Backbone:
């Protein structure tokens, strides 16, 4: 699989924010001229937390503050989607509250906000949220072992509990697969498949035969491609990125990492530390008939942003001296990637 | 910062002089220098007690307590007993904000780390040879690279180019707002690190002043401020050459070597105007002659920046030749007869004065320059244009200070005198006092590159510093500053690990101090432990995290972290508590809830502590479920094996013995085959356990399992029957 498109180095712009960037996402673009990104910021000088919408200009690359919303606590998880042709931003906070921000499709100014306070959903931090395509429902998971679904209406939201493990199992990642199914991830590389038609517990549970010496870790992020909903892509510690194919339950497909002592020397590890986020990368061309895992992008604690392909060498896009905590690929302009750097900065990559 | 208090009214008290009990007696002469800030805590007087402690970073935490309320008085109803107020002491450098400082701190990590790794690479190469000092190698080249990287971080914000009087009337333009920090850094780079341009140090100083002259405007008169003032009145001037300011400003600019500005200003002279040209021909000729001389001034330097005037000459003999020629041209012009024909008095005097400056007339230079630094720099340009030693520079500086004494010292002049005086301690003290710990920790690299003497002085281990060197001391201080901020603590390890004596100890303390509540931060912490091979620290941190999660009801997280820390003791304790709830929920065959946790425990029992029982119990229950109707003999045998393993295992809690046996009744009463499922020894093992159990029931801490009352007797009966059958069978 030649990736000639990436042979050129991408254009990289680092933009200092002077505030800690907790998370960053693109907003669904309404036109090529009006592009926006949502930044969850924490000002350590004043202790203020906010979600800011910045308008993005590609030529020359600039991010300029457009509108902002004051958050009651630091943002832990941030997702964006489209709800009835309107960009919607969902944020969960350290304190455990959940906020839905609806913005204007034309100028991305914030129109309205619906919040769910701390206690009813989770006790403690909501570790991950995910919005269904079309934004009708949002799944929330927490360390407390609860899984909730929040149905989004025009001016209100209705939460309902799907599962409560009473803390026996903690969940750290979640991703929708279809309107009925979603996947969750947690400690010890555990992955669960949930089907709303089969209530009461996970429909399927991943029990990987991991190499003996491998240290089990926490799944930080999951992605599922709409065209291949049977495959869960997950990222964890020591540069581990693996895929779980529901049809091949027992065997994880390791794309990176997996421990140096695992004996599988054919797989390189792109990073040596926590993989914070994984996303399928629609920019890299891939034959639709191939049975291989689709190309994906990861970011890590040791400052790596890279593209992974099954059976190919990983391509490093960024190697920063500090952690890359989150990133997002613009769905409409997949050549553009935005990422948040530990050192109070944003990096924007434009791939030619 | 709150304003200075004039009095201490109700509801506020003064921190230092509060309630007669000042810790340090304040002498009467010091009283004048005390600044009192009111603290608004909103408590009703009287205030009984005040406690002050350090908070994060530059903040003080002041706790204000009221006296304990008197019973029954009812006076303090609805009153809070005290309040805690955080007081931010200062914003540090007014020039650079906290956020800007953090950006500098982040940016200097990579250059610093690179330099340290190069240092250790070099010292490991030269290990065993006579000198381990990197000074002998081309070390300064690495230091220069480092210095340039750091310097690029210190640039102020870019100023928008000022197009107001662009073209002819803009005398000077600015690129970026100069910062005193960058000026100080570059000054040190010039003297200590940049060995390549030592030969043209005087010219480098001229350039340095050109970049940073404006910084001195805060406390001194400067040519820069004169130029700014003149620029402002320039547009309103009709006949520019009649204004004495014009000549004054121009000679000042010439004295400090801003040749392009001088030439630009000379060309603004009225005699250049087309309608004037014919009747002021001689005057114009003189102006132009001076302009040409100024622009042709020989300079001993490799090349000048774009747009700068002067003839640059690299070799000294060439320069001397050109210098002599240039001087003779000036003298010739000075003695020319044209001056008598020039009837504009102002022009004549102004130009003559400029010639005197170029000829190095001390008096003219002294008048033209605005402060001692400018006078000092002008000496390099017009009096002693050759390289001189730092010691003679120092003497020259002293002389200039005598000629142009300063009323109040500037932060940069103190540093400059320290450098010229070749006094490393003074330079360090100035850096520390004026620019803070970041500056000292990073500038020390420049100082040590400067000379072997400084290198020895700074790296020498000192008894009075507790056996550490000055270098290490300042790195530790800087690391402490970084550690005190939630966003910069992560870069403190880079500096701590470069401290041989006390760095690792402080690093461990730093890592232990970080909060464990959130996995992301915990993992960042553990990552640092991994980078520096501090596995005992990460293991302790994971134990703390495990207990934290366990206490907050997140059993799975707690178990995971304790497993990672391989803390069998705590896992065992957790297991005992967990089994209380297991007994109830697992016996009703609902594994669903436990499944996730059991999966987490993994197949390797050694990391699970007492919890391995959970997995075995689950396996046993599963195999028991697979024994449907009493048909499958293999499944039944498997279940028996699980049962025996469980009963043999010392980690199986006693309270599960009877439920396990009771659950296995159908195995014990297996009638389908001729042979019983359990042989004699197996049955004996189970009977022994039953015996042990009946003894244990006498103990007061025994927990009775919730089973039917006949459970024990039916198990005993089944075992006895089984024993009989097994004996017959054998």
Residues:
């Amino acid at each position: 699989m030649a990736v000639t498109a990436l042979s050129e180095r991408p254009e990289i712009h680092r933009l200092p924010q002077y505030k800690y960037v907790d998370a960053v996402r693109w907003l669904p673009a309404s036109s090529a001229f009006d592009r926006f990104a949502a930044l969850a910021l924490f000002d350590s000088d004043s202790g203020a937390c906010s979600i800011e919408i910045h308008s993005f200009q590609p030529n020359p690359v600039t991010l300029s503050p457009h509108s902002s919303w004051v958050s009651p606590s630091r943002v832990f998880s941030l997702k964006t989607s489209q709800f009835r042709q309107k960009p919607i931003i969902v944020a969960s906070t350290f304190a455990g509250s959940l906020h839905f921000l609806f913005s204007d499709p034309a100028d991305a100014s914030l129109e309205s906000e619906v919040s769910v306070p701390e206690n009813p959903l989770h006790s403690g931090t909501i570790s991950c949220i995910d919005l269904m395509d079309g934004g009708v429902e949002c799944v929330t998971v927490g360390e407390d072992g609860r899984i909730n679904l929040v149905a989004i209406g025009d001016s209100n939201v209705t939460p309902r509990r799907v599962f409560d493990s009473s803390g026996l199992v903690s969940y750290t990642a979640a991703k929708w697969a279809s309107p009925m199914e979603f996947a969750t991830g947690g400690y010890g590389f555990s992955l669960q498949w949930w089907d709303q038609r089969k209530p009461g517990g996970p429909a399927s549970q991943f029990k990987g035969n991991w190499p003996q010496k491998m240290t089990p870790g926490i799944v930080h992020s999951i992605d599922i491609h709409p065209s291949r909903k049977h495959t869960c892509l997950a990222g964890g510690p020591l540069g581990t990125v693996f895929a779980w194919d529901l049809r091949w339950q027992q065997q994880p497909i390791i794309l990176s990492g997996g421990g140096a002592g695992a004996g599988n020397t054919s797989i390189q590890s792109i990073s040596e530390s926590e993989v914070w986020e994984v996303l399928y990368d629609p920019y890299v061309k891939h034959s639709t008939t191939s049975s291989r895992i689709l190309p994906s992008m990861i970011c890590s604690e040791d400052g790596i942003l890279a593209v992974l392909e099954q059976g190919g060498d990983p391509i490093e896009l960024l190697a920063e001296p500090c952690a890359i905590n989150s990133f997002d690929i613009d769905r409409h302009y997949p050549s553009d990637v935005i990422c948040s750097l530990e050192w109070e900065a944003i990096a924007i990559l434009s791939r030619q | 910062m709150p304003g200075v208090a004039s009095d201490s009214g109700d509801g506020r008290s003064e921190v230092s002089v509060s309630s007669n009990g000042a810790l340090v007696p304040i002498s009467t002469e010091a009283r004048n220098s005390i600044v009192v800030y009111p603290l608004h805590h909103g408590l009703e007087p009287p205030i009984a007690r005040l406690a002050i402690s350090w908070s994060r970073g530059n903040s003080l935490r002041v706790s204000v307590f009221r006296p304990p309320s008197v019973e029954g008085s009812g006076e303090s109803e609805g009153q809070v007993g005290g309040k805690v107020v955080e007081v931010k002491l200062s914003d540090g450098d007014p020039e650079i904000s906290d956020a800007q400082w953090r950006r500098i701190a982040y940016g200097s990590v990579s250059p610093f780390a690179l330099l340290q790794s190069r240092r250790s690479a070099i010292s490991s190469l030269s290990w065993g040879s006579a000198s381990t000092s990197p000074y002998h190698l081309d070390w300064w080249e690495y230091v220069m690279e480092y210095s340039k990287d750091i310097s690029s971080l210190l640039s102020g914000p870019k100023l928008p180019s000022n197009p107001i009087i662009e073209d002819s009337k803009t005398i000077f333009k600015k690129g970026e707002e100069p910062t005193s920090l960058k000026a100080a850094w570059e000054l040190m780079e010039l003297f200590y690190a940049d060995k390549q341009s030592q030969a043209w140090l005087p010219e480098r100083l001229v350039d340095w002043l050109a970049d940073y002259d404006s910084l001195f405007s805060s406390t001194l008169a400067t040519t820069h401020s004169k130029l700014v003032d003149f620029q402002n009145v320039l547009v309103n001037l009709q006949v520019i050459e009649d204004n004495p300011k014009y000549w004054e400003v121009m000679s000042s600019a010439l004295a400090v070597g801003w040749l392009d500005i001088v030439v630009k200003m000379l060309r603004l002279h009225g005699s250049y105007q087309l309608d004037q040209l014919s009747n002021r021909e001689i005057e114009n000729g003189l102006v132009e002659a001076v302009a040409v001389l100024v622009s042709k001034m020989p300079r001993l330097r490799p090349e000048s920046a774009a747009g700068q005037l002067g003839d640059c000459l690299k070799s000294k003999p060439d320069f001397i030749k050109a210098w002599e020629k240039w001087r003779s041209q000036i003298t010739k012009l000075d003695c020319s007869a044209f001056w008598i024909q020039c009837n504009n008095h102002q022009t004549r005097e102004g130009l003559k004065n400029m010639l005197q400056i170029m000829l190095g007339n001390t008096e003219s230079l002294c008048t033209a320059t605005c402060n001692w630094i400018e006078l000092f720099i002008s000496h390099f340009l017009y009096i002693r244009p050759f390289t001189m030693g730092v010691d003679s520079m120092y003497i020259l500086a002293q002389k200039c200070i005598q000629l142009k004494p300063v009323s109040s010292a500037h932060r940069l002049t103190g540093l400059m005198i320290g450098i010229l005086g070749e006094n490393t301690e003074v330079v360090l003290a100035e850096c520390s006092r004026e620019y803070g710990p970041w500056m000292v920790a990073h500038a020390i690299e420049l100082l040590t590159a400067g000379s072997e003497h400084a290198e020895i002085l700074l790296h020498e281990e000192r008894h009075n510093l507790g056996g550490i060197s000055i270098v290490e001391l300042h790195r530790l201080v800087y690391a402490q500053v970084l550690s005190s901020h939630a966003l910069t603590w992560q870069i403190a390890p880079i500096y701590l690990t470069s401290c041989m004596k006390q760095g690792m100890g402080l690093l461990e303390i730093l890592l232990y101090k970080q909060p464990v509540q959130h996995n992301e931060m915990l993992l960042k912490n553990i990552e640092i432990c991994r980078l520096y091979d501090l596995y005992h620290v990460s293991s302790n941190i994971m134990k703390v995290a495990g207990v934290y999660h366990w206490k907050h009801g997140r059993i799975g997280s707690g178990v995971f972290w304790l497993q990672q820390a391989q803390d069998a003791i705590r896992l065992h304790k957790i297991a005992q508590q967990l089994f209380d709830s297991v007994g109830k929920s697992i016996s009703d065959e609902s594994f669903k809830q436990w499944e996730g946790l059991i999966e987490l425990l993994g197949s390797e029992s050694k990391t699970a502590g007492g919890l391995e029982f959970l997995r075995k119990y689950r396996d046993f229950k599963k195999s028991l479920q697979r024994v449907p109707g009493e048909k499958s003999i293999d499944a039944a045998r498997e279940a028996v094996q699980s049962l025996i393993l469980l009963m043999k295992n010392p980690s199986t809690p006693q309270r599960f013995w009877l439920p396990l046996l009771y659950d296995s009744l159908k195995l014990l009463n297996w009638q389908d085959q001729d042979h019983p499922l359990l042989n004699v020894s197996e049955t004996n093992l189970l009977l022994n356990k039953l015996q042990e159990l009946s003894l244990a029931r006498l103990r007061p801490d025994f927990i009775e399992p919730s089973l039917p009352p006949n459970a024990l007797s039916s198990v005993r009966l089944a075992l006895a029957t089984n024993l009989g059958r097994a004996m017959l069978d054998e």
Notes: Residues 1-6 of chain A have pLDDT under 50 and may be disordered. Residues 118-121 of chain A form the longest helix (4 residues). Chain A has one helix and 28 strands. The CA atoms of residues 177 and 228 of chain A lie 9 Å apart.
